[in-house]
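Interim report, section 4.2 (structural modelling).
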Amino acid sequence: MRIAWRGAELRLLLPIIVLVPLGFAVTHIALSGMFEPGPMELAIGYVAIIVGAHFLLVAFGHRGDQLLLPAVGAMGAVGIVMLNRLPQDLAGTSALGIELGMAATQLLWFAVGMVAMVAVAVGLRDDGILRHYKYSWAAIGILLLAATVVFGYEVNGARLWIDLGPVSVQPGEILKIVLVIFIAAYLAETRTLLTSARLRIGPISVPPLPYFLPMLALFGIVMLIVVRLNDLGTALLFFGTFLIMLFVATGRRSYVLIGLVLFAAGFYVAYQLFGHVQARVDVWLDPFADPLGAGFQPVRALYAFGRGGVFGEGLGQGLVTLGGNLTIPFVHTDFIFTAVAEELGLLGAFALLGFAAVLVFRGLRIAALARDDFSGLLAVGLTASLGLQTLIIIGGNTKLIPLTGITLPFVSYGGSSILASSIMVGLLLSISHRTAVGADVEPEA
Amino acid sequence: MTGDILRILLLLLQLGFVALLYLLLMRFAGSLLKDLRSAEQAQIASRSGIGRLSVLESPEDEPPAGTTIALGPINSIGRNVNNTIYVEDDFVSTNHAMLTFRGRSWFIEDQGSTNGTYVNGHRIERPVALSFGDELTIGRVRMRLDR
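Predicted structure of the assembly:
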């Protein structure tokens, strides 16, 4: 096998090697008032994990995309610098007698995530296991959801967590991947049937129902349970991803239109039925109506954006505290983007968006170059999911759309999120690897 | 006094951090551009074809397993050497099947073969539209339609 050195990837990783320790140093100087670098273990650990992932890919002769890992590394770098700057007791683990702070826990999960990413990228030589067992994947997804409904416990009004001894996991994160695999496999198989339908009502062509039903049924169940678990962000994410994949597979605008109408209707019903939804929308429309109660989160976030301005307050110099507590709630998970915008300003926030854009751009490129329909649709679904998740939470932070509690991929604190996002990038890598290897086989004349 | 120096140094480091973020972003942009240019050229060079068949399994080794066959718009498959795609296998009929590209999709049609034509393991009764990635079985030969 030819050795692929992945030089472009290494070149892009070089700035990150300096970036993370620099961010840690700035934070330490600002917080302590002394000109010294401060503790560097976590910064070095992070750099080691990312560069280690690079060398693992080289060692296994991986020939996939070289921009995905640096993009992930850059987003994670901003994340770990922010998490290191926040008070370390916001979250953390104390398992097996070892106490770990928030940034250290995040680092641990990053290590797990990167190993999972490389394992998926290298281990998945053939997509048969994904494609042929699509109903098994769907069943696993349903089981995961059912487990959450039965064993789950509530955090902030949404029942998402399962307690597994030392760690709590969010099955919804894994469900996201399983669902994309199922939809991609199903659409790849029925694509031609879906597009060749000639059932028309006026200007709108209607999908042939029999081919559509299994997928709609599964999707209905998922939506129902997600709404029952009060996890609106995930519901929005699933639906958006599904519509994008459907549009890419069929090229039919009418399907998207039907989907949007369904979504609007569903949202209206949910608004009428659930107080949870109503409260979210009311706060979104006018957070200043109750600035100390329901509107506390968004009002604090908006002030933080204002304080940050274009250049930011500086690492370790922003984030107002009130009686020793940070005023932005969930600053390490849902509102991490707000923290970045306050301390690094519009400039830093834009850079973060830029890294996410690189990730999406490369994902779509992998999809366009994929050698078969299933791989292409899978890449589209994974990319759409990562991209939409970024947009939904940033839109929520900036009051563009109602706030829903989901994580910013690779930046927010949270093990399940990092692991799931890493596996998704691993799948994208494996698809692009197969494309690169396939292109080597010269076609016979 | 020392406080002022500290503040200036901190500001400089802070600026360095943001500058580094943008240096990274510029490098990303550079890589993306370079890649787009080379992809454009590669497309002109190679991607003029409408599809190809990868031979996955072929007991008689004609066509040899592991090779790829470039496809024209109309391809006849069979044991007769005059076919576009000549298959040497006892279970393949003289004129076995037609693989054609019409409009935007590939179609496969059985030509009344003895042992039938299979798409993803299902025997076809009439012309069937294929997706890229579908598996075609003709006699004991297994092939996959690729882009």
